[in-house]
């Protein structure tokens, strides 16, 4: 019997409730190996594990105002691991912010609202395909 390789997904979110919500949702898919991080810095330390997909929050300063934000983390991920697909999360509804992130190399952009999990589900299916 052939073993199917699990895809590695990092969730980088400093809001514990939202992080758990996303991770629990993603873990329902047995083809995904999900790891959670509360800061960009902790995610970047593990980037050598070559995640296939990173779900990255835009604002990561809930606990530490000096923390690296999602924009800077995206730039660093693009530099170190250009093939990793990065899905940005943000409560911002700014088209300019979304366009900037997509231009830098984000795979897609999800607005944190009541539809976020449903939208993330569609984007994950696209990213996995």
List the main descriptive attributes of the protein structure presented here:
single chain, 129 residues, alpha/beta, 5-stranded parallel β-sheet, 5 helices, 21% strand
Textual characterization of the structure:
With 129 residues, the protein is of the alpha/beta class. 40% of the residues lie in helices and 21% in strands. It has 5 helices and 5 strands. It has a 5-stranded parallel β-sheet, sandwiched between helices. Strand 3, helix 3 and strand 4 form a beta-alpha-beta unit. The model has no long low-confidence stretch (mean pLDDT 91).
Concise structural overview:
The chain is built from 5 helices and 5 strands, in the order βαβαβαβαβα. Helix content is 40%, strand content 21%. The chain has helices spanning 16-27, 40-45, 70-80, 95-104, 116-128; strands at residues 7-12, 32-37, 53-57, 85-90, 108-111.
Mean pLDDT value: 91
Low-confidence stretches: none
* Count of beta strands: 5
How far the N terminus sits from the C terminus, by CA atoms, comes to 23 Å
Q: Which strand order do you get reading across the main beta sheet?
A: 2-1-3-4-5
Q: How many helical elements?
A: 5
Tell me about the biggest sheet? 5 strands, parallel
- How would you spell out the order of helices and strands? EHEHEHEHEH
Query: What structural class is derived from the secondary structure elements?
Result: alpha/beta
Radius of gyration: 14 Å
Strand content: 15-25%
Shape: globular
Q: Roughly how much helix do the residues carry, as a percent range?
A: 40-55%
From the structure provided, what is the oligomeric state, counting identical versus distinct chains? single chain
